[in-house]
Amino acid sequence: MAKTALITGASSGIGRGAALRLAAEGWHILAQGRRERPLHETLDAVREAGGSGDAFQAEMGNMEEIAALANWATSSATLDAMIHCAAKFTYGPVSTERFADWDRSIDEVLRATMRLTAHVLPAVRRSEGAFVYICGPTSWTGWKNHAVHCALRHAQAGFARALFEDVREDGVRVTLVHPGFVDTPSVNDAGKDRSRMIQTTDISELIATAVTLSNTACVTELTVRPQRSPYL
Fold this sequence. Notes:
Layout: E1 4-8, H1 13-23, E2 28-33, H2 36-49, E3 52-57, H3 63-73, E4 81-84, H4 99-127, E5 130-134, H5 147-167, E6 173-179, H6 200-212, E7 221-224
Parallel strand pairs: 1-2, 1-4, 2-3, 4-5, 5-6, 6-7
């Protein structure tokens, strides 16, 4: 029986790259995204790579849709991995004018991470599977005009680290991946050389390693930086 992975943010970037990498090993991909057409493009590429898949449209900030996504994903025979790539990026100074954006970010980054994990955890426990969270350097640093984004990434990383301690004796692996500049459509390339950025295939290879290790070992955290500076 093919192994199954739920991948959020699978319509492009790291999420799509992870889907294609696991598909090459015959995995069944449960792809989440917000946009129908890019999701179906991902599924077409998954099938070309040798895997199979299904898609589910859901907004990360909508808790009812998160629950529906989890119910859909756990209706599979097994759920062997959850790879969480979806996230909202928020930028700007600390200001009372940004409360609405902060609240959306809290829902889409932190609350979505915790709730989706809790929903699918029983299924991943049964399979002695794996969780992977794409985080980043804002989970341990503070950047100007990124106060809320940094706060959310700090919290997301703390959640994942504590989750590992909760589930390690059940054979469940939990991995945090912290990429530097990755050549994805969402990255601003002004003043940068995309050919020197980390490629999605690089990150996807590391994700695949994390979820396919035997459960005698767990890669708990990976920090990945471009070999050469992409700044021009």
